[in-house]
Design a protein that fits this description.
Layout: H1 4-24, H2 29-42, H3 50-75, H4 81-101, H5 108-126, H6 140-157, H7 162-171, H8 176-201, E1 212-213, E2 216-217, H9 218-239, H10 244-267
Helix pairs in contact: 1-2, 1-3, 1-8, 1-9, 2-3, 3-8, 3-9, 4-6, 4-8, 5-10, 7-8
């Protein structure tokens, strides 16, 4: 039975994750993963797979969050479905591969590389450094390769891919509002692939908490998804009221915070 403290924490974190998903085209994993880890600790769950449970649960919640966000963006005609068409199969393959391999691979080097990458992108956005006007999206083969990388990295760190796909698209001179909307649709495909991978890889693991499906903790999925689905459209609405520079600034701040959070966890 969850205490009042836990319920309040779930409601607030779900609302924040949903709002950020709608605002910036991300999946909300940077909020969801820590809250799931905190909840498992509060419930006395001791397992070598707590991080895997947090990641799998995060992807399950993101399915509902990003679907709500993507629908709101679609209604505002802010999704480039051509980009989605080419990137989606690639991020699904990358997400399945990454999540299936997650329990076998040491993640420290990957996390260090990822943190450095996030800091560089955050600095670029915060300093308003603009790409060359002639730079464009790569051809379909190039998009497929980029999609694979986004899918693998997203599955390993429990994010919906927005922190990678939005900077990539803006680097290729895709307008920021279109990039965040397109990212929301891509994040849904990453979430589906990540969920499938974490359910499969945790299916035969013994000693997991009750009410889990593979590495997915179902009670938290239900509780948080309700909140994220409600608040994601609000984030989309606010996003379209901001200027491109302000939206890039918000994205830069989020990337900086994600990277700093990862450094804190590595040093703890």
């Amino acid at each position: 039975m969850w205490t009042t403290e836990i319920m309040i924490a779930l409601i607030l974190s779900g609302a924040l994750a949903g709002f950020l998903a709608g605002l910036l085209g991300v999946g909300g994993g940077t909020i969801i993963v820590p809250i799931v880890l905190w909840l498992l600790h509060k419930q006395g769950v001791v397992s070598e797979y707590t991080q895997h449970i947090a990641l799998g649960t995060s992807f399950a919640i993101m399915i509902f969050t990003t679907l709500s966000s993507a629908w709101a963006q679609h209604r505002k005609k802010s999704i480039n479905w051509q980009i989605v068409k080419y990137l989606s199969p690639a991020v699904i393959i990358g997400g399945l591969l990454g999540s299936a391999l997650s329990k076998y691979l040491p993640a420290l080097f990957l996390k260090i590389f990822f943190v450095i990458f996030l800091y560089l992108i955050a600095i670029q956005m915060l300093l308003k450094l603009k790409p060359k006007p002639t730079r464009q999206l790569p051809q379909p083969a190039g998009l497929f390769g980029i999609g694979n990388v986004i899918g693998v990295l997203s599955s390993w760190v429990g994010i919906g891919g927005g922190s990678l796909s939005v900077p990539f698209m803006t680097y290729c001179n895709v307008p920021i509002h279109l990039a965040t909307g397109t990212s929301a649709a891509l994040a849904w495909t990453i979430s589906v692939a990540g969920l499938m991978g974490y359910v499969y890889s945790g299916w035969h693991i013994q000693g997991l908490p009750e009410h889990t499906l593979g590495f997915v903790y179902l009670p938290v999925v239900v509780a948080l998804s309700v909140c994220t689905v409600i608040f994601a459209p609000l984030g989309v609405k606010v996003s379209h009221q901001l200027s491109p520079d302000k939206l890039k600034m918000a994205m830069g701040i989020l990337l900086f915070l994600i990277a700093t959070q990862m450094v804190w966890k590595m040093l703890a």
